[in-house]
Specification:
This protein is α/β, with parallel strands linked by helices. Helices cover 34% and strands 19% of the residues. It has a 6-stranded parallel sheet with strand order 5-4-1-12-13-14. The protein has a 4-stranded parallel sheet with strand order 6-7-8-11, sandwiched between helices. Strands 2-3 form a two-stranded antiparallel sheet. β2 and β3 form a beta hairpin. The radius of gyration is 18 Å and the shape is globular. The protein starts with a strand and ends with a helix.
Length: 259
């Protein structure tokens, strides 16, 4: 393995606390000349805020080291000449879509696309139903999903993520979402391209057996599961098989040294 992709929440940190040994492990990757990128389905904050959080936790990173679904989505919207999306993302993340002309927050028609991220507690029936009405008002408007992660581990326990709401909209409209985040292979392809390495030289490290590990394996990468974040022993009872299971990211440098 010559390059590394790292999930953030549950791998590098949990809530506002760094996983023990994570800053040191990432610093060693840098010292050893191992190229790495952070890949996350987080849509609750922009890259600048994520970089600031990493810095507070002792992890050196800039926006160029971060690949988020919002970044992938802006490129996809531009490629498809979409100018008026309906954004179901937090206000801070909406800043990543500067240059577009989003429809009004109360609009129920007129959107060129419906972009769904993690609104957290702002999701309610009226909000989800507005997304549904926007999609049914124009059968040509694509549903753009900023990842399909079903849930994540917050400081107070498990919480639904954007994937749950995307699936509800797919079911209601009979439409398949354009997924611009993990586990979509195109998202992993973009991350591998940023490293400048072939996929089979890259390992993805995550706490989600499906989104991180299996998604990466389908894209031709190795997938390593860590026993932090949302990991549970049940993850190892199914048909999915990680290439390795580590107690935490702290064990990653030694595992890489043995490859």
């Amino acid at each position: 393995m010559r390059g590394v992709l790292l999930d953030l929440d549950g791998v590098v940190y949990v809530g506002d606390e760094a996983v023990p040994g994570a800053p040191e492990a990432i610093a060693r990757l840098a010292r050893d000349g191992v190229p790495y990128r952070f890949v996350t389905n987080t849509t609750s904050r922009p890259r600048s805020a994520i970089a600031e959080k990493l810095a507070r936790l002792g992890v050196a990173a800039d926006a160029d080291h971060l690949l988020t679904p919002a970044v992938a989505a802006t490129a996809w919207l531009r490629r498809h000449a979409i100018e008026r999306p309906a954004l179901f993302v937090p206000d801070t993340t909406a800043a990543e879509f500067a240059g577009f002309e989003p429809v009004a927050a109360s609009a129920e028609e007129g959107a060129d696309a419906v972009v769904v991220g993690d609104l957290g507690e702002r999701w309610d029936f009226a909000t989800l139903n507005r997304a549904f009405r926007l999609l049914t008002a124009d059968p040509a408007a694509p549903l753009v999903a900023l990842g399909l992660t079903p849930y994540w581990r917050a400081p107070d326990g498990l919480r639904l993520d954007a994937g749950a709401y995307v699936r509800a909209l797919e079911y209601a409209t009979g439409r398949e979402a354009e997924v611009l985040g993990k586990p979509d292979p195109a998202f992993y392809d973009a991350a591998v391209a940023a490293l400048g390495l072939p996929a089979d030289d890259v390992v993805m490290v995550g706490d989600d057996i499906r989104t991180d590990v299996a998604g990466a394996q389908r894209a031709g990468l190795a997938g390593v599961l860590v026993r932090t974040g949302k990991f549970t022993p049940r993850d190892l009872d199914g048909d999915l098989r990680p290439d390795a299971v580590l107690d935490s990211i702290a064990d990653l440098p030694e595992w890489l040294a043995q490859r």
